[in-house]
Write a structure and sequence with these properties.
single chain; mainly alpha; 2 helices; 92% helix
Length: 59
């Protein structure tokens, strides 16, 4: 797997973990956990956007 492929995989993993954290936080009423989940999703979204830009610039 290339570095770019690893970054894309890591982005998807961060997004998924963030969604689980957010849902768990909402389920138990923990605002901090919900916020952490949203932040983790945003980090994954940013990483994914960066990789898409790299792909466009490569072509």
């Amino acid at each position: 797997m290339t570095v770019s492929g690893e970054e894309k995989t890591q982005a998807k993993t961060e997004q998924a973990k963030g969604k689980v954290k957010e849902a768990s936080g909402r389920l138990v009423g923990n605002e901090r956990l919900t916020a952490e989940g949203r932040a983790e999703q945003a980090k994954g979204d940013a990483r994914q956007a960066k990789e898409k830009i790299k792909d466009v610039l490569k072509d």
